[in-house]
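ok trying this again, last paste got cut off
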Amino acid sequence: MIEAGDAFIFQPDEPHQFINDGSEDLVIYVVADNPIGESCHYPDSNKWLVRSPERRLIRSEPLHYHDGEE
């Protein structure tokens, strides 16, 4: 269970996911160094995020951030 004041540190290339299955809103603050050229994979929706001057989610064409996340 996540409680107020908890902190998490994820190393580069370490998969992670937060799921709020409670009845209250979960507010998280992300502090990250996401350099140009970095990429990450969203396995549930089979998307890749590639950080470039123009942020884009791709499969074979640009996608909206929430595409496939329903």
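PB: full thing came through this time. The chain has a mean pLDDT of 80.
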